Amino acid sequence: MENKLWTRDFTIITLGSVVSMLGGQMAGFAMSLLVLDYTGSTFYFALYNIAYFVPYVVMPLVAGPFLDRFSRKRTIYMLDYITAVLYGVFALILHYGGLSFPILAAGTFALGVIGSIYQVAYESFYPLLITPGNYSKAYSVASTLQTLTLAIIPVATFAYNAVGIVPLFAFNVVSYTIAATFERQIRHEEAYIAKRAAESAGEEAKAGLKRFLDDFKEGMSYLRSEKGLLAVAIYFLFSSMNDGVGQTVTLPYFKGTFANGEYLYMLVWGCGSAARALGGLYHYRHRMPVEKKYDIALFVYVAINALSAAYLFLPVPVMAVCCTLVGILGVTSYNIRISATQRYVPDEKKGRFNGAFNTLSMIGMLTGQLVSGVLSLKVPLRILFMSVNLVCLAAALIFIGGNRTEISKVYNTQD
Questions:
Q1: CATH architecture assignment, domain 8-194+206-411
Q2: Per residue in 221-264, pLDDT tens?
Q3: What is the rounded CA–CA span in Å between residue 215 and residue 163?
Q4: 3-class secondary structure for the chain?
Q5: What is the pLDDT of residues 265-316, one digit of tens each?
Q6: What does the domain layout of the chain look like in residue ranges?
Q7: Which of the residue ranges 34-48, 344-358, 400-414 has the most confident prediction, judged by mean pLDDT?
Q8: In the prediction, which pLDDT does 325 show?
Q9: φ, ψ for residue 10, nearest 5 deg
């Protein structure tokens, strides 16, 4: 008999994540527009992005070992409550005329600290709520809903231009509070905590720092010992570098090249988002052939980078077609990678693995943002984006294509 996916706990975590994602997408995009309008500089826009993502380099490594010993559920809902408070403080500061780039950067840094810990906690807790045989379905749901929440971005743009950013921050206070309240109702017993405690039964005398360092070393050792996982993590370091460049240059390119460029940007990327949503629905209803998952993933990685390298040089309608294809391919990539790795890694090691993986990804993201922010002062934005995509394409051939046997052991598995 097939196990039921939509259990009580899975439904709650899904609803809670949708509510918080809606708030995060709305305020995040509006803040990007605010920074561009306030500074008028791609360089400062890059600094703003870096302020958010710097914590993602360090905090996952710190949080991973902690989250393999303590409650991930409690961490998730407490961070959502803290985020609601932070957005309330942000709204009050801006309402009373306290706008400045240092305040924006400091607030963004604080959100980055919270978000980086939350990401590891959520990614390590979510698979525990998935019933056996439903990993691909569950991550198709997650990807589809994450994509559908992007529909709030046009609303955020109109609201930002009409009423300013303070009401959007107030909306976030409500949305994150609701999400946290949902998440508190989850009943799942986190058995990995007792397992980790049993493994450490003879180590009670260790100081907290010593235990943390041992857990951290164990997590990095596990990643190094799994050649397939390590190769995937290294490729996604390059992929994240590519994402960092894209986040830094694409919106400024559209705003600087076209009249009402932010709306054209939303139209083009909206095609990609719609395609991701439809692709997620397809993967929810259809299983990929187990023995072909690795081959599909390699093709997808190469195709995404090839299309992305070209799309800024194309007419707008063709840009939209490229983004549509990238959206379909992107959700396929996400579904294969996240369902395979979270199924493959033992529950008691998920926190440390996700922490190490996210840190490598954020190193790539920050490198891309920093390099593109500096080079944007001299290099045309389209040339910059194309070059990084070609580097990422080469990384896919080297790290994914060059480790077929090891990665197939991770990817070519049944739910």
A1: Up-down Bundle (1.20)
A2: 777 888 999 999 999 999 999 988 888 888 888 888 887 787 78
A3: 48
A4: CCCCCCCHHHHHHHHHHHHHHHHHHHHHHHHHHHHHHHHCCHHHHHHHHHHHHCHHHHHHHHHHHHHCCCCHHHHHHHHHHHHHHHHHHHHHHHHCCCCCHHHHHHHHHHHHHHHHHHHHHHHHHHHHHCCCCCHHHHHHHHHHHHHHHHHHHHHHHHHHHHHCCHHHHHHHHHHHHHHHHHHCCCCCCCHHHHHHHHHCHHHCCCCHHHHHHHHHHHHHHHHHHCHHHHHHHHHHHHHHHHHHHHHHHHHHHHHHHCCCHHHHHHHHHHHHHHHHHHHHHHHHHCCCCHHHHHHHHHHHHHHHHHHHHHHCCCCHHHHHHHHHHHHHHHHHHHHHHHHHHHHHCCHHHHHHHHHHHHHHHHHHHHHHHHHHHHHCCCCCHHHHHHHHHHHHHHHHHHHHHHHHHHHHHHHCCCC
A5: 878 888 887 888 888 888 888 888 888 999 999 999 999 999 999 988 988 8
A6: 8-194+206-411
A7: 400-414
A8: 93
A9: -65, -40
Residue tagged 């986190």 (tokens): 190
